[in-house]
Design brief:
By secondary structure, the chain is an alpha/beta fold. It has helices spanning 12-23, 37-46, 54-58, 76-85, 100-113, 127-138, 174-191, 243-247, and strands at residues 2-7, 27-33, 49-51, 66-69, 89-92, 117-119, 144-152, 194-201, 216-223, 228-234, 261-265, 269-272, 276-278, 286-287. The protein folds into two domains: 2-120, 3-Layer(aba) Sandwich (Rossmann fold), CATH 3.40.50.720; 124-287, Dihydrodipicolinate Reductase, domain 2 (2-Layer Sandwich). A hairpin with a 7-residue loop joins strand 13 and strand 14 (286-287).
Length: 289
């Protein structure tokens, strides 16, 4: 049995991680680490210990085998290094960090301490994505020329309030670090490394200060393989096109079934997640699932 602590367990994502740990017959939720009242209430509901910080956890009788880190983005590295130095294996919510240099310091720490570090890019394992990967690898589309993606929705003002105010900060928040990071991982999964990026920000609608996060951007990717990609992202437009809404992954957003990726090949084009394949052989779109 693997004893797991959830660090940041009082938030929305933390609560979901707690549920998954509790629902797995091979894991035990040994503690929640979070200073908020919500975390204390959650710990009482599940009859587990609750600590205000990682230091308290590591000095307690509930020292875990592994920990899930779902704290604000800019805290991932500090929390992760504390855990690594204590010999605790880590599942870290994406992104691993808000900047490359600090991310490298966490990787160095886990290597030196001989602990495992996994970043929570779970969408690679989504059944829809696994099916799309098979299509791309099968050659039915021919040489992949380009990909187009959308992550466009609207986040209400409550999303940025209270303990979640860090989501407004350009150093740790914004749809690039919070949302597009998933899409970038999936592009790597499907097509390999991205070699270069160019982006232009969208107009801002919220009353923002100089340190405010972006609301969106139009982005051009060039992959090492030569294919190109364009993405439009925004967390402040009225739109049904996003991974969460298109696939129904997030129960807090309505499932629309609308496409959010289109992959263009020399022999055919496929939209996702509806898996509609279009080619000159057929002349009309057809589903392949």
């Amino acid at each position: 049995m693997l004893n797991i602590a959830v660090v940041g367990g009082g938030g929305l994502i933390g609560k979901r991680h707690c549920q998954h740990v509790l629902g797995n017959p091979r894991t035990t939720l040994c503690a929640i680490v979070d200073p908020t009242d919500a975390a204390s209430v959650l710990a009482d509901e599940h009859d587990v210990a609750c600590y205000k910080n990682v230091a308290e956890l590591l000095g307690s009788v509930h020292r875990p085998d592994a920990a899930i880190v779902c704290t604000p983005n800019h805290t991932h590295v500090d929390v992760g290094i504390q855990l690594a130095r204590a010999g605790v294996h880590i599942l870290c919510e994406k992104p691993i960090s808000s900047d490359q240099a600090s991310a490298a310091s966490l990787v160095k720490a886990v290597e030196e301490c001989n602990v495992k570090l996994l970043v929570g890019h779970h969408r690679r394992f989504n059944p829809y994505m696994q099916a799309l990967k098979k299509v791309v690898d099968s050659g039915v589309l021919g040489q992949i020329i380009a990909v187009n993606g959308l992550w466009t929705t609207i986040k209400p003002s409550e999303y940025f309030q209270g303990i979640n105010s860090w989501r407004r900060d350009k150093a740790s928040g914004g749809p690039i670090l919070i949302n597009l990071i998933h899409d970038v991982d999936l592009m790597h999964f499907l097509f390999g490394p991205i070699a270069s990026v160019h982006a232009e920000s969208t107009p801002s609608q919220r009353p923002n200060g100089v340190d405010a996060a972006e609301e969106g951007a139009a982005i051009l990717f060039k992959f090492e393989s030569g294919l190109v990609g364009t993405f439009l992202i925004s967390d402040n437009v009225a739109s049904p096109h996003s991974f969460e809404q298109g696939s129904g992954e997030n129960p807090h957003l309505p499932k629309t079934g609308k496409d959010f990726y289109r992959i263009f090949g020399a022999k055919g084009t496929i939209s996702f997640p509806d898996m509609t394949l279009s080619s000159y052989d057929a002349w009309t779109p057809r589903g392949i699932m």
